[in-house]
Amino acid sequence: MAILYGQITTNKPMAAISSTGNSRIVEYRLMIDIEKNRPIILDRRVHANLRRKNKRWRGTVVEIHLRGNYAQAMPKVLEYLKQTAMVNPYANITFVDPRGRLYKFDRTVDKMPPPPKEINPHPHGVDVETIQRIIRSTTENNMLGFMQRHFHRVGEKTAKDFLKYAGIPEKKDPKSLRPEEIVSLVQKMKEYDGFLPPESDCLSPLGEDLLRAGVLKELEPEFVAVHQRKPSAYSGHPFIVEVAIAYGGKVPAKDDILLYRFANKIPLVYDESGDVCWKIVRSINWRRYKISPSMPFAVIIHVCSTKIPYKTLGKEILADQLEVSREILNGIREVARQLSRYLSRKERVKRQVRRLTIFSRYLPKIAQFSAELAGRKDPPNINKLYKRKQVFKDFVTSDEYMDSEVFDSHLYNVVFVHIRNKHEENPAAVRVLGLINSKWKVLIPESALTSGSEIYETLRGEYEAIKVQAKSLKPDMESLLDAYVDGLSE
Amino acid sequence: MPNKKGIKSLTDIKSLVLKKLEEMGERFCREVDQGRFPMIRMRSRSTDNIFYSQQHRQYILGDKTVTRSSRNIAHLRPFTQMVWTAYFVHELLRQRKTSTLRDVYYSAQAYDIFFKDQSESDNIITDLETAIEHPRESFNVFPEERSAVFGDLTIQYTVPGYENRRMNLSSHPDGVMIGPALTDARFIKTTADKVIVIEKGAMFTRFVEERVYEKFNSILIYTAGQAPRSTRYFIRRLNQELGLPVYIFSDADPWGMHIAMVIISGSANAAHLRELTTPDAKWAGVWASDIINYKLPSEKLNDRDLKRLRELKNDPRYEDEHWQKQIDIFMKIKRKCELEAFSRYGLTHIVDKYLPERLKELGA
Q1: Less Cβ crowding at N or C end of chain A, within 10 Å?
Q2: Is there a catalytic annotation at residue B106?
């Protein structure tokens, strides 16, 4: 589309340079034969792909000339690239704009989603034309085998059940089906609800891990929840909905909800308000999740399908397709619940921190003034009620787990652990152990602690002692930690 | 001087308060030592626990109690404030110094104890009164307001620097301020046989000028509007320790009536305290009926006055027949007047005519 637009506005060829990392780099200059919808190759060159630092170049460069108002379009262009980077976190994207400025979107993962597999059509999605084509080429001579061989997710049992439902004998030769029988077969296929839904391997969704990585990379939120819905189908077209919600961090707080829409990893940047996603997002009662639209959060919706239910030819907005809309709605609900849980937890932690601050501020004073009242020389020791100990102070991590100071916790039934990574860049790995029956047991399993972030955790139960362990998350990248343990007897 | 009703002497009360405060501190220390969060139980001062007691003729607190615990995060701050306040007043008592509510509020900052405003610190002091079961005057925290007394009463100071020094309260014509020193003074001797309490400054001055203290053998007290607690405490002492009857003169309106009533029966706010009322004191005027009988110049009652009258009508302190009758007359004539209204008939009219008639009527 972009190449076509460039050609009709400037009549200049596009250039594509590519290599898969082997010894050759191929360069093409081409235009499009608009009538035949075929490329006209103007120039083709092969370059040697030389090793540099033991690596060969791999990637694709595309150069297009097109006429447009860049000053006006710039925000949308950059937004488009940013969003593309969000759903392609395994790609390095470089863009040199008409003003000669370089924009880079670096990959954060080096794993790609598995490529889609070719599959047979799902019985719900075929039309008469398709059936006729299959019949012409099939080698099956009975309907039972025909159904199993040519349709997705149809096994022997399903095929039998369906043929019984459709009133077609199992032994019937598909080539003997009359045209009106074919029409009836297609009708029955659409009606029958015993087919299993299509499998997702014919689609190329991102998967929860990659979607999370993409959102973390481009939006830099404090919290992200992702959810991939089970594969489903509408009118025989399989689809998968993937939803994410990003909260806090660098996600801007707007007056309204920030929405990112994607179809098959393509950002949809125009006509947001006409999109069914927008309608669904607006229909949700966010207050139920303790979320208000003015909070800094973004909803990310990715619809992946063999046929995206676009509303218009422009392929910018999704239509209200019942099955798809339902999956989008349920997907958003799931991630909203996760965000809600996160916010509640955060609120609980905040309350707990406040609680402990209050104890640490007031208990010593109560002890001091009670002692003065009683005419005692020294205030009573409040450590039986509440104690705070710094177990890591400016601790520099190494590649192996190292112990913090031990906190004697046998007096307290609530212990509060607070670990902070003070390093400017490097992440750390930390875990918390408790001594029970003279054995150290992991209470908080290994958690990554990125630069500048903190862990607060409340531990309830009877432990003789508590300690923190920390190491560098990545080899030779030491980080700097502080850790506190508070004990409270309640 | 004979101690008429066997009440505790001031020094006894103060040493009792000191002891209670010290016991509180010891208990908290012991609890911390044993790994328990200190807590204190006191009577609840919420409105559903304030009852009028016929027996005590004042509001009292019911049996409901509240617990302040240092384990409860919501209580921790007020609990700490209270422990500090206990410490602070203990120091006051020990060093025989006095302070005021406002002074306590500011003093806290020196100890890194924070009150967000004075009403918070006032409230904590009230908590301490409730817990210790003694008014703040017993732990040397006095109100800011000052009222005055004049009459033939010889007192002996107990405050540091003035110990055993004596003074006659008729020695200064403006009256002597009822402050901490006078509140704690010992009563030595008097020739007076009654106490006359006056709400208004102008009338108090007139009574002094017209030698009411001589003509009627009385001690005069000026309340400056609603009587401060130290003044109520002082009136109670005159009544209880010296056995002097008390007559109260205030404006003829619901507010004036209530000034008299608070001296007699106390306020709901002080339901936790027992040493501030003078149940035998008498409201001597100006009555609603006096407006008619003495043809006093009067003003119309406004809506606020009428609303207040309706409240008083249902107030258990006002159930006595005489009070009810006066409220009914107010409501009927819908007029009010001030003590100064007597001046219409000449400056000395109130002293020459009204006062003797009224005192006679009340059997003085």
Answers
A1: N
A2: yes
